[in-house]
Design a protein that fits this description.
mainly alpha, 2 domains, 20 helices
Amino acid sequence: MTHTDAAVVVSPEALPRAMAQPPATPAAEADGQLLLDDDARARLESAKSKRALQDPPGLRAPRGARIASAAAVVYVAALPLLKPTGPFNTSPVDVAGLVLVVAVAVGSRTKRLRVQLPYAVPIAIFALAGTLGALAGPVPALGLTAVVQDIILLSVCAAIATTARAARVNRLLMRTWAVAGLCWAGMLVVGVVTHVTALSGGGIRYGARASLTMGDPNLAANYLVVSMFMLYAARWPARPVRRVGASLVLLAAVLLTGSNGATIAALIGALVSMVAAICIRNGWPLLPGLVALGAVGLLLIAIAPVARWQQDIVTNAQASSIPIVRDSFGREDQSSSTRHTLLDESLQLFHSDGLLGTGPASTKHVLAADQLPYQKEAHDDYMAALTERGVLGVFGLALLIGAAARRVGAVARVPRSSGQRLMAPAPVVGCAVALATSGLFYEILHFRQLWVFLALIATVPMAKRS
């Protein structure tokens, strides 16, 4: 071997010293080529990969956050575990929520965690409005219990936002939600096909509609719709074809719940996601595109009630031999009629009971006391805020919507080249609009998945500032 062919082999023990040396000059390369053996090369590549995956200094998980992060992962994965129900509407998933809140509280006392409290002002006003309405209303105990639930959900949201402030934890929670949502959807589909009620839920009250382990088909459908958007926001599975297949499983599960409101919310959210993706990709302002889409949607809503095809769909669904079709699309006329009746009755309550409202969870009691024909709880977050929490409650809800919209906008503005885009922005925008649409059909402010979503989008502006 000549002098120019000589090679220096660096052992694994000498790797750190070799990495610390400056790059070889051309003259040095001519004098001898630096080679690594296979084991040392593997260690070098592993070290580079670990450095590439590390969070920037402002986004690193604080020490002592492992318990809180683990509890957050369990909470997100176990969101559908709402049965059996305990006192004050508690559920098995709330055990992980309690561990999460306690871990964050302990970490904050030892200065290992810096607590984040997003949406504190809107929920404080919303809770104050509920307290005033409950004290002035006919069922103060139920109203104050609902206010306590508001505070608990805000506490869990703050705990998740605190742990997910680290980019790595945020990505882990997003991936956990995507994987868990697909697994729960698969369990529901298998349960319906094999007639295993423990997996599909359902019962006499809801007919053929599946409810998973959540006890309510609408609640289950909302969770599955949000999970579908989280699938795309987390970019999991990595291959688009597999991602489409996973979303089809989730869509099938949504249809098996028979929730017309969730189906409409999913369609609107999907359209918004497409428009948002086009605007973000081309650098166009997002708001004008969404306003144009909203104008088209309002036009379709104005035309739909007089369209012949809509009534034909409902009539054919009512005559269908498939139970889930009869219990979903076949009941559209009845659902629309009862919602219009409840809306009229709620407006009567607001005009008769004053500006403070009747208190949270009081609509059914007041309607029964007044002997009105449709005696049910409010099926609309916006009208419930007005009739049960009064004008102050509507103001608090408007502030909450504004705070969420601002954070969704921050998600959409994070440039791809910054390296801090923790989630795909277009599905996040679509998911937010789908949740806002769902509030027109049922009360989602006490849905746990809503507050997890709000916590995850709250971390993006925090991470960007860091």
